[in-house]
Structure formats: C-alpha cells, structure tokens
Amino acid sequence: MSEGRPSEARTRDLWSKCSENMLVKTSTGLLTAGALSFIFLRRPSYRGAFATFGAGIGAGIAWMDCRLSFADKKWRMLTLKNPFPAGSKIGGVKIPTPGELASKLGINNGGSSGADSGAAAEDGKKASSA
Q1: Residue 129 CA to its chain's centroid (Å)
Q2: Alpha-carbon span 44 to 61, nearest angstrom
Q3: Percent helix, strand, coil in the chain (nearest 5)?
Q4: What per-residue confidence (pLDDT) applies to 106?
Q5: DSSP per-residue codes, 51-111
Q6: pLDDT digits 0-9 by tens, 35-54
Q7: pLDDT at position 74, please?
Q8: Measured between alpha carbons, how far is residue 50 from residues 18, 30, 32, 105 in Å?
Q9: Separation between Cα atoms, residue 29 and residue 21, nearest integer Å
C-alpha cells in the first residue's frame, strides 16, 4: 500500500480483501472437506460435521491472514515466543536452563564421558605449554 493514501481508503481496501479472502477460504475448506467426507464417510451427520469442520478451518486461516494484514506484520510460523522461558518460576517451581538440565541428567555437551574430556583438556594444556 502506498504511504500517500488516506487511512480510510487503506482500511476500506483491507476490509474488502479480508472479506474476499474469508469467502474464498471458507468455501474452499467447505468444498474440500465435503468432497473428502463424501468419499470416506457414510453417515450424513458425519459428512455435515466434517464439512463444517473444513469450513471452520478455512475461516480460521482467513481470520489470521486478515488480522495480520491489519497489524502490518509478517506471519512467521515457527518463531513463537516461549511462554515459560528458562529460569522463570511456575507455581514456585523454577524451570531449569538447558545447562542445568543437562547436568542433572548427566549429559555432557561434547557427547563423551567426563573422564575422557578431562584427559583431553589436560593433553591440550600440555601441548600448548610445550
């Protein structure tokens, strides 16, 4: 959208795109789920429920697209914020950091046992001092 346009025109265009998107995606979900239910399901009540579920999926996708277009943000599917970051407390219980969890479970970062990594560190010190 261009920056010089008034906000009313921009909002009107967004609403028209959102309503078109909602209609197209809801009907696509309804028709796709209806066709699949006609092939795989026998009872009419199951077919109707499955078709309604497909229409709801399409409407939900269109709703998310519309919400994000009004917010001017790009949709990043796999970058969700962790609601429980490491080190926070939930009900008085502290969530361990990955390092604390690895030490509690006895997992080393290098993948070798502790004795081997200690010996390798000592060999490294001897080689660097020589």
Answers
A1: 50
A2: 26
A3: 65, 5, 30
A4: 81
A5: HHHHHHHHHHHHHHHHHHHHHT----TT-PPPSS-TT-EETTEEPPPHHHHHHHHT--SSS
A6: 999 999 999 999 999 999 99
A7: 55
A8: 25, 9, 10, 45
A9: 12
Q: pLDDT confidence of 94, banded at 50, 70, 90?
A: confident
Instruction: Name the residue with tokens 């579920």.
Output: 53
Query: In Å, how far are 27, 56, 63, 74 from 47, measured between CA atoms?
Result: 15, 14, 24, 35
Give the CA dihedral 100, 105, 107, 109, nearest 10 degrees.
-20
Per-residue pLDDT tens digits for 42-93: 999 999 999 999 999 999 999 988 888 887 655 554 455 666 777 777 777 8
Q: What is the pLDDT of residue 46?
A: 94
Q: What separation in angstroms does the CA of 72 have from each of 1, 67, 68, 76, 113?
A: 11, 9, 6, 13, 50
Query: Could you tell me if 54 and 65 are in contact, meaning their C-beta atoms sit under 8 angstroms apart?
Result: no
Strand partners, 10: none
